[in-house]
Structure formats: C-alpha cells, structure tokens
Design brief:
The model has no long low-confidence stretch (mean pLDDT about 75). With about 55 residues, this protein is mainly α. It has one domain (about 5-40). The longest helix is centred in the N-terminal third of the chain and has 16 residues, at about 5-20. It is built from one helix and no strands. The protein is flat. It comes from Salinihabitans flavidus. This is Lipoprotein. Keywords: Signal.
Amino acid sequence: MSMYARMALVLFATLFLSACEDPNRYPVSGEECSPDDPVKTIDGTITSCVPTV
C-alpha cells in the first residue's frame, strides 16, 4: 500500500469516526450533557500541583 493511500485511509477513518460523536453526550461515559454540569464551574487557573521536571 502506498504512502498516499495510507494517509487517505487514516484521514477518512478519522473523519468518519469523529462524525459519530454526539455533542450532547460525554464521549467516555455516554452521560447526557446539561447546562447545570459541575464541570462548567471548575477554575482551570488554580494549580496546586508542581511539575516534577
């Protein structure tokens, strides 16, 4: 299989699988999203973890 055919296959598979995602549900758990989700109130600027580089 040529490199271009592989790239086309990967691109097609990515687009095909991403089209199956339901924007009204969480992708892993499958639970329905709602405006009252506690995730929306999380402050991403709070950092209590120091990276260990």
